[in-house]
């Protein structure tokens, strides 16, 4: 047999798929679920990571100086603060400067416009080197005498680190498990087709069809199952992501969280889903027809 | 040409079905393979089609050495054979035409070749009008003729039939055997396993008699040996 009769194999693969409508449906359903779970956790991890990076860029601790200190005394704390491990730099901000930048940040709110600088404290904006040690560093800064209060995004950062780590671990574990489950289900669907077609397979062999010829329709069947699953999962993922993003955007208490728009992510999601779907589908079919690899 | 030399074959369960057979069938011959039940006739057929392997001896089929054939060559060897089974083994959800086009496709025939070849073969077996029927809509004799058409359609060098008349009444059996003789006269080697003494006698072809895994007689003419059943 010379040329690869794509049309024929594709047609056979497609009709195989429809000959077991229910099983194919179940296989696609499981694979879609697998891809969706994989995708969702990956996207959560990606977003948590992006947020962490945002935070890392402004990896600042605000250290407020005790009210009883004069500005001169306060400025003198700088060298002590810079001696704390993991502190990259400490920048002094006086009460007046603090008030000005506050007023700049909230220009509309006339209520704050003529605030008394006295309600603001002198402070240091401290940059740190390693965000993972944020909480220890914050503790050490607080221990410096003359520092009354420390305001770090430590809880938020810690939260995101946890989310990212959990999402990553869950992701890896789920991907492994769901991958195996999907391959297994697709493999069984295709085994059912090979069982259905055992007479035809026996006859094809008897008349001298090559193994390749016998296998291709099943490979296409797996390919189609995987690819369809990927397509369905992609659109569901899109819808899900858009819904969650909107929910977060309109929720006041989640103001801080900035969701990466799907427009930026879809090529990667589409590519990964298609690749995973095809690997699952073709892998499943190859495992189903392993025995036809021998004569 | 088919050549078996000192061939022995043992099934996995230890049954020694073939105990040293040497046999040559020339191109264009018509050979009946006869013998009691369990003597090893079907095993010989399976050895020829490559379904089972010999444990000793050598088998040559149409230029292929079956004993040390490479995996890639097995399909090519099988293309030189057309096999007919007692139970027809037609695909019930395909029409007569599709049963034939299916096996042509399986060996890479083009749609053009298929369109040309199938009417010719159906005409040869007298089933031109049944092209679009399903196997279940045909009589036993007609189904067996479809099976013959299918064995012929890829134009093999040799036709091998294991009790092709087993499910047919005597008249249909005679018709079918006449068809195989006609096919043989068109140049195809034919090997037929049968129980039917009357038929074997009627045609006066070469008869190879098997008993307990041995060839006990090989001669032209009628049935030899007394204890033939069927
Ligand atoms: N798959 C098998 N496994 C084990 N033993 C087998 C198998 N097939 C056949 N045999 C044994 O091998 C011997 C030869 O069997 P074979 O089928 O070749 O006989 P046969 O001549 O075709 O008989 P029949 O005329 O009844 O078809 C018998 O003893 C049979 O029991
Ligand atoms: Mg038999």
Give the tags:
heterodimer, A: 295 residues, alpha+beta, Alpha-Beta Plaits, 2 domains, four-stranded antiparallel sheet, rod-shaped, B: 230 residues, alpha/beta, six-stranded mixed sheet, 7 helices, 10 strands, 26% strand, binds adenosine-5'-triphosphate, binds magnesium ion
Provide a short characterization of the protein structure.
The complex is a heterodimer of chains A (about 300) and B (about 230). Chain A is of the alpha+beta class.
What does this structure look like?
The complex is a heterodimer of chains A (295) and B (230). Chain A is α+β, with helices and mostly antiparallel strands and 295 residues long. Chain A is built from 11 helices and 4 strands; from the N terminus they run H-H-E-H-H-E-H-E-H-E-H-H-H-H-H. In chain A, strands 2-3-1-4 form a 4-stranded antiparallel β-sheet. The longest helix of chain A is centred in the middle third of the chain and has 43 residues, at 154-196. With 230 residues, chain B is an alpha/beta fold. Chain B has helices at residues 41-49, 73-78, 96-106, 111-124, 140-153, 170-185, 197-203; strands at residues 2-10, 16-25, 30-34, 56-61, 64-65, 81-84, 158-162, 189-193, 206-211, 214-220. In chain B, strands 6-7-8-3-9-10 form a 6-stranded mixed β-sheet, with helices on both faces. In chain B, helix 3 packs parallel to helix 5 (140-153). The A-B interface holds A 1-2, 5, 8, 199-200, 202-211, 213, 294-295 and B 49-50, 71, 74-79, 81-83, 89, 91, 102-103, 105-108, 150, 154.
Outline the secondary-structure elements.
The complex is a heterodimer of chains A (295) and B (230).
Chain A: H1 6-19, H2 21-57, E1 60-65, H3 71-75, H4 77-82, E2 87-93, H5 95-105, E3 123-128, H6 134-143, E4 147-152, H7 154-196, H8 198-206, H9 211-250, H10 262-288, H11 290-293
Antiparallel strand pairs in A: 1-3, 1-4, 2-3
Helix pairs in contact in A: 1-9, 2-7, 2-9, 7-9, 7-10, 9-10
Chain B: E1 2-10, E2 16-25, E3 30-34, H1 41-49, E4 56-61, E5 64-65, H2 73-78, E6 81-84, H3 96-106, H4 111-124, H5 140-153, E7 158-162, H6 170-185, E8 189-193, H7 197-203, E9 206-211, E10 214-220
Parallel strand pairs in B: 3-8, 3-9, 6-7, 7-8
Antiparallel strand pairs in B: 1-2, 1-4, 4-5, 9-10
Helix pairs in contact in B: 3-4, 3-5, 4-5, 5-6
The structure holds adenosine-5'-triphosphate (ATP) and magnesium ion.
């Amino acid at each position: 047999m010379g040329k690869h009769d794509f049309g024929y194999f594709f047609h056979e693969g497609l009709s195989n798929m429809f000959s077991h409508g229910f099983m194919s449906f179940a296989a696609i359903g499981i694979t879609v679920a697998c891809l969706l779970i994989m995708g969702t956790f990956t996207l959560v991890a990606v977003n948590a990571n992006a947020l962490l990076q945002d935070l890392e860029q402004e990896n600042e601790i605000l250290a407020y100086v005790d009210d009883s200190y004069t500005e001169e005394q306060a400025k003198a704390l700088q060298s002590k603060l810079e001696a704390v491990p993991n502190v990259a730099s400490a920048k002094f901000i006086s009460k007046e400067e603090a008030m000005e930048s506050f007023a700049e940040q909230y220009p509309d709110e006339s209520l704050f416009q003529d605030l008394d600088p006295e309600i603001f404290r002198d402070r240091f904006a401290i940059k740190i080197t390693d965000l993972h040690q944020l909480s220890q560093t914050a503790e050490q800064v607080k221990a410096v005498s003359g520092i009354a209060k420390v305001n770090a995004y430590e809880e938020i950062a810690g939260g995101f680190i946890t989310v990212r780590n959990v999402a990553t671990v869950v992701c890896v574990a789920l991907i492994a498990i769901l991958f195996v489950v999907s391959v297994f289900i697709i493999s069984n669907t295709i085994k059912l087709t090979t069982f259905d077609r055992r007479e035809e397979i026996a006859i094809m062999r008897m008349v001298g069809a090559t193994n390749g010829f016998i296998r291709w329709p099943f490979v296409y069947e797996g390919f189609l199952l995987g690819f369809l699953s990927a397509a369905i999962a992609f659109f569901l993922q899109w819808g899900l992501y858009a819904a969650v993003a909107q929910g977060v955007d309109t929720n006041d208490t989640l103001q801080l969280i900035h969701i990466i728009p799907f427009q930026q992510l879809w090529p990667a999601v589409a590519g990964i889903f298609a690749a995973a779907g095809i690997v699952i589908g073709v892998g499943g079919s190859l495992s189903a027809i392993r025995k036809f690899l021998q004569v | 040409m088919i050549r078996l030399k000192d061939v022995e074959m043992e099934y996995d369960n230890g049954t020694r079905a073939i105990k040293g057979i040497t046999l040559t069938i020339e191109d264009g011959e018509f050979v009946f393979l006869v013998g009691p039940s369990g003597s090893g006739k079907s095993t010989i057929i399976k050895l020829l089609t490559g379904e089972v392997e010999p444990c000793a001896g050598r088998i040559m089929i149409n230029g292929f050495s079956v004993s040390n054939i490479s995996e890639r060559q097995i399909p090519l060897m099988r293309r030189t054979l057309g096999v007919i089974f007692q139970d027809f083994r037609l695909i019930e959800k395909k029409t007569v035409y599709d049963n034939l086009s299916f096996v042509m496709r399986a060996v890479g025939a083009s749609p053009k070749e298929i369109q040309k070849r199938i009417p010719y073969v159906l005409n040869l077996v007298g089933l031109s009008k049944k092209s679009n029927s399903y196997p279940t809509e045909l009589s036993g004799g007609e189904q067996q003729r479809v099976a013959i058409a299918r064995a012929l359609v890829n134009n093999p060098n040799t036709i091998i039939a294991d009790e092709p008349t087993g499910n047919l009444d005597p008249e249909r059996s005679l018709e079918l055997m006449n068809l195989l003789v006609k096919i043989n006269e068109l140049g195809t080697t034919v090997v037929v396993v049968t129980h039917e003494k009357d038929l074997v006698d009627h045609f006066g072809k070469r008869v190879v008699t098997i008993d307990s895994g041995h060839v006990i007689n090989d001669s032209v003419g009628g049935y030899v040996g007394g204890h033939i059943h069927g």
